[in-house]
Amino acid sequence: MACPLASERIWTDKSLYNAAEKKFYESQSKGAVGSCTLVSEIAKARQHIKDSLERMDGIAALASTPGAELLDRLATVEKENCSLKETIKKLENLVLGLTSRVSKLEGGKPAAAPAPAKSAPAPAAKKDDDDDDVDLFGSDEEDDAEAERIREERLKAYAEKKSKKPALIAKSSIILEVKPWDDETDMKELEKNVRTIEMDGLIWGAAKLVPVGYGINKLQICCVIEDDKVSVDELQEKIQEDEDHVQSVDIAAFNKI
């Protein structure tokens, strides 16, 4: 009978093959350092993608259910709401108490007020109604007459004082510009003729010659007039009557005094 192990193939040198395989892979890994670096980078990228997906799943789960922070806030708001309700209730009770006290105080005033005492002297006055009426009306008439007399005296005194006060005289200060015909006009004679004009309420002032051009000068002369007595138009006409010297008369300045 043949041996049962004769047909089996036994690998008696497996340890040697394992050692040779390990040596082969070690030599392969030493010669490919760059490939190992690439493999590690790929592994890192895969891990990063995995972490990102797990994080997104966590966010989605939080969005689908209320978080612990939101629940804490809701609980805090509920507590504050209860506290406010209690405070409002206390204030309402306080206001009701104050209202009742004020109503009691106001209700007690009419009872304590001596209103009847004020009307008590009325019967005594009724005894002599006729005499009292006569005295009262007579005193009113005397007071009215006295007040009227005092008012008339004051008005009369004011009118006398106003009549004695001197009336305000309205005056104006004017600067006239008198222009000659040409440069041969005697300006001294022109000024002399202007100053010879006399009118009630007219006062002549300073004068000067102002160059116009091409050797021609114009006369600027000041005067003060009383508005009620002197007409400016009439004064200009009187100056222009000196036709030998005067071409025109203009008003350079006009001021109320």
Report on the architecture of this protein.
The chain is elongated, with a radius of gyration of 63 Å. Strand 2 (202-213) and strand 3 (216-226) form a beta hairpin. The longest helix is centred in the middle third of the chain and has 45 residues, at 68-112. A four-stranded antiparallel sheet has the order 2-3-1-4, covered by helices on one side. The chain has helices at residues 14-31, 33-64, 68-112, 115-119, 122-126, 129-164, 187-195, 232-240, and strands spanning 171-180, 202-213, 216-226, 246-256. With 257 residues, the protein is of the alpha+beta class. Helix content is 62%, strand content 17%. It contains eight helices and four strands, in the order ααααααβαββαβ.
Note the main attributes of this structure:
single chain; 257 residues; alpha+beta; four-stranded antiparallel sheet; 8 helices; elongated
Shape: elongated
The proportion of residues forming helix, as a percent range, comes to 55-70%
Model regions low in confidence, pLDDT < 50 over at least 5 residues: 110-121, 123-132
- Our count of helices gives 8
Distance, first to last CA: 165 Å
Strand content: 15-25%
Which class of secondary structure composition applies to the elements?
alpha+beta
List the helices and strands and how they pair.
Elements: H1 14-31, H2 33-64, H3 68-112, H4 115-119, H5 122-126, H6 129-164, E1 171-180, H7 187-195, E2 202-213, E3 216-226, H8 232-240, E4 246-256
Antiparallel strand pairs: 1-3, 1-4, 2-3
In short:
The chain is an alpha+beta fold. The protein has eight helices and four strands, in the order H-H-H-H-H-H-E-H-E-E-H-E.
